[in-house]
Design goal:
The complex is a heterodimer of chains A (371) and B (445). Chain A has 371 residues and is α/β, with parallel strands linked by helices. Chain A is built from twelve helices and ten strands. In chain B, the strands form two sheets. Chain B has a six-stranded mixed sheet, with helices on both faces. A three-stranded antiparallel sheet of chain B has the order 8-9-10, with no helix packed on it. In chain B, helix 4 runs parallel beside helix 5 and helix 8 packs across helix 9. The N terminus of chain B is likely disordered. Classes of the chains: A alpha/beta (371), B alpha/beta (445). Chain A: Pfam families: Septin (PF00735).
């Protein structure tokens, strides 16, 4: 077997940021090659075999190009474009969510992609509470996952239908955020990762685009709306630098299409107009590639992680608390300790858990003292 | 104390009725119904495994090995050799009264992979005269690790992705190189552990066995394990890239290993070896022992699988048993599916009822005690009252006696003074008469 020199391994290790200075055990130096790094390969193999799931929701008024964008992102006919609906369909009274799943594969990596469409959003005359079906849907997926997670006999792999990313389409008005945008993003920003984009951005010039973006960012800040990538969830300084760059650029101004044209002898995806061809994948023309890179090539796993570790956990805490399962952990503690009425409070349960305990230890102890 | 509860999970989500999804496509929470689709260009999600791996690299990996074996069989040395480093360990005595487990965590780094390695050693295993309790401590330790993970998982505010996983991923069982067969302690211990942890048996100090003996020994061991129904860890053969090597290795179990932290010069290289007067046993020479194979299997090929098996098989089994023990089920007696939350609420209800009952009991006991005390006090009061009355009576009796005496005395005094008065009177009279007589006499003269 090989034996890398110690200095080589040390120099490679220095390139990575050091772990947070928590209670880390003493660092031991290896005298030679062991083969620990092979675990990366093992992990890669296993995850490829298991496959991935990704659920993306697109929200926006009809006609903003949602289906086209999704098709362009995933280079296939994932969504069927809603061709001109009949008059009756058009004035459906509520937002109806439609979810379509496909399995796509690239270089051995299988992904189950689910696109959740929200036709009818913002299309009515009275759009009050049009976000409610969407909020319900998102919460229902969390609920479903929670239920599966709580089974005694649970599946080795819990099917993940939670919305990992919600792409919100802003019409390219060039002004400010509209009330419906603010309301929607305020509410949904708390439960899901929102990626706002400027749709059909080919109607804005570069200067208009920059101004619009700046105004939107101001608006988002002023309303306390958190969009992805959220500053609070940056894990380390490297992440922060990367994400800051992204945050300076959102919302991305995108153009979508599935038609190809010839430009300078190359086939490119683009929209042909009388004044030129707008190349979708050209960074000088629009920011589609930025969006694609963010969503798919660099932050896909992060989107899933944020959904799982943060949004889902927030939901779980809220759900377990509100259905009066405050004694959840506690009853188990009681049974574990095998003594009747001995309330042993473990490490650090949140205050809400303690409410019940305190009331009852008080009564119990006062009786004990009398006797 | 079994808690039985029934409760309702109300799916109170407003607007649920307005959600309409294309049914056959939506039910494809299972992969079978999702349509495959072909891509017309490079999308880029093939970088997903790399993204995932990068994230894990930043967080670091955890790996926990449990070494079970008699004192002095070479556990610590093997760990040193395996990880090519020098962990501080000290020899333990043979006089431990009970089997103890000592866990130490080390932070290792190789290229950009950070590994938090925890090595748990059994101290005093097999040293006691009575070895009946030996395996119990090990089982308890393993269960404790599962328990703390389960408790973390069941907490309301939990942080699983930051949690330092202390569950044992691999158990190296060191078999003494007797050349004959497994000891009964070995069989019993392995049988108790096989459903809780991935067991990899190794023959320690294999340089004391000759090649032919070793072959027979291995066959004997494996047949004993099979006939006793001990499930040792099988290297996975479902992934084509590694199935061949894994299947081959499965046939070479248990690995005959030699450990050494000393180096000997062979040719022009320094190799880890043990030097004897009759020759040098090279640790990393595959003809001499199976050390390289062990390292290959344990670390380079199957570390991730060991971790996965621990989590999906052993931990799930533990969790299932523990929850069932506490009375949680997925289906209630009518075989209708019941969610953990429902069972939970039901338990809480019963628990509350129980609590109320106990409060009542305590209250009643309290009232009773108070009554008892009251009666006691009343008794005492009555007694005192009685005594008081008695004393009073005595006192009044005495008083009346004394009164009588006084009266009689007074009577006497009265009589006496009367007598006295009478006597004085009489005396006065007689004196008067005498005086009168004298007067008369004087006159006559």
């Amino acid at each position: 077997s090989l034996s890398l020199s110690l200095s080589l391994s040390l120099s490679l290790s220095l390139s990575l940021p050091l772990p947070p200075p928590s209670l880390s055990p003493p660092r031991h130096d290896l005298f030679g090659y062991v083969g620990i790094e092979a675990v990366l390969d093992q992990m890669r193999r296993k995850t490829m075999k298991a496959g991935f799931e990704f659920n993306i929701m697109v929200v926006g008024q009809s006609g903003l190009g949602k289906s086209t964008l999704v098709n362009t992102l995933f280079k296939s006919k994932v969504s069927r474009k809603s061709c001109s609906p009949n008059y009756e369909e058009k004035i459906s009274k509520t937002v109806k969510l439609q979810s379509v799943s496909h399995v796509i594969e690239e270089k051995g990596v299988k992904m189950k992609l689910t696109v959740i469409d929200t036709p009818g959003f913002g299309d009515q005359i009275n759009n009050e509470n049009c976000w409610e079906p969407i909020v319900s849907y998102v919460n229902e997926q969390y609920e479903r996952y929670l239920k599966e997670e709580l089974y005694v006999n649970r599946k080795p792999r819990i099917p993940d239908t939670r919305v990992h990313c919600c792409v919100y389409f802003l019409p390219a008005t060039g002004h400010w955020l509209r009330p419906i945008d603010v309301e929607f993003m305020k509410r949904l920003g708390k439960i899901v990762s929102i990626v706002p984009i400027i749709a059909k951005a080919d109607t804005l010039t570069m200067e208009e685009r920059q101004e619009f973006k700046q105004r939107i960012r101001q608006d988002l800040n002023a309303n306390g709306i958190r969009v992805y990538p959220q500053t609070e969830y940056d894990e380390d300084p490297e992440d922060r630098i990367l994400n800051d760059k992204i945050r300076e650029n959102i919302p991305f101004a995108v153009v979508g299409t599935d038609k190809e044209h010839q430009v300078n002898g190359n086939k490119v995806l683009g929209r042909k107009t009388k004044w030129g061809i707008i190349e979708v994948e050209n960074v000088a023309h629009c920011e589609f590639t930025n969006l694609r890179d963010l969503l798919i090539r660099s932050h896909l796993q992060d989107l899933k992680d944020v959904t799982h570790n943060i949004h889902y956990e927030t939901f779980r805490v809220r759900r377990l608390n509100e259905s009066n399962l405050t004694v959840h952990g506690l009853a188990l503690i009681i049974v574990y300790t095998h003594t009747t009425l001995e309330f042993r409070i473990l490490e650090s349960p949140p205050e809400s858990d303690l409410q019940y305990t305190v009331a009852n230890t008080a009564t119990a102890s006062c009786f004990y003292s009398i006797l | 104390m079994l808690l039985k509860l029934i409760c309702h999970l109300s799916p109170a989500f407003p607007g649920l009725s307005t959600i309409c999804v294309s049914k056959e496509r939506y039910r494809s929470g299972r992969d079978k119904n999702a349509r495959p689709l072909s891509l017309s260009g490079h999308v880029g999600f093939d970088s997903l495994p790399h993204q995932l791996v990068n994230k894990s690299t930043c967080q670091g990996f955890c790996f926990n090995i449990l070494c079970i074996g008699e004192t002095g069989i070479g556990k610590s040395t093997l760990m040193d050799t395996l990880f090519n480093t020098n962990f501080e360990n000290f020899e333990s005595s043979h006089f431990e009264p009970k089997v103890k487990l000592r866990a130490q965590t080390y932070d290792l780094q190789e290229s950009n992979v950070r590994l938090k390695l925890t090595i748990v050693n059994t101290v005093g295993f097999g040293d006691q005269m009575n070895k009946q309790e030996s395996y119990q401590h090990v089982v308890d330790y393993i269960d404790t690790q599962f328990e703390s993970y389960l408790q973390e998982e069941l907490k309301i505010k939990r942080s699983l992705h930051n949690y330092h996983d202390s569950r044992i991923h691999a158990c190296l069982y060191f078999i003494a190189p007797s050349g004959h067969s497994l000891k009964s302690l070995d069989l019993v211990t392995m049988k108790k552990l096989d459903s809780k942890v991935n067991i990899i048996p190794v023959i320690a100090k294999a340089d004391t066995i000759s090649k032919s003996e070793l072959h027979k020994f291995k066959i004997k061991i494996m047949s004993e394990l099979v006939s006793n129904g001990v499930q040792i860890y099988q290297f996975p053969t479902d992934d084509e890239t590694v199935s061949k090597i894994n299947t081959a290795m499965n046939g070479i179990l248990p690995f005959a290993v030699v450990g050494s932290s000393e180096e000997v010069k062979i040719g022009n290289k320094m190799v880890k070896a043990r030097q004897y007067p009759w020759g040098v046993v090279q640790v990393e020479n595959e003809n001499h022992c199976d050390f390289v194979k062990l390292r290959e299997m344990l670390i380079c090929v199957n570390m991730e699988d060991l971790r996965e098996q621990t989590h999906t098989r052993h931990y799930e089994l533990y969790r299932r048993c523990k929850l069932e023990e506490m009375g949680f089920t997925d289906t209630n007696p009518e075989s209708k599916p019941v969610s953990l939350q429902e069972t939970y609420e039901a338990k809480r209800h019963e628990f509350l009822g129980d609590l109320q009952r106990r409060e009542e009991e305590m209250r009643q006991m309290f009232v009773q005690r108070v009554k008892e005390k009251e009666t006691e006090l009343k008794e005492a009061e009555r007694e005192l009252q009685g005594k008081f009355e008695q004393l009073k009576r005595l006192h009044s009796e005495e008083k009346s006696k004394l009164d009588e005496k006084r009266r009689s005395l007074e009577d006497e005094i009265n009589t006496f003074s009367k007598k006295k008065a009478a006597a004085e009177l009489l005396q006065g009279q007689s004196f008067n008469t005498n005086a009168n007589l004298k007067k008369d006499k004087d006159r006559k003269k």
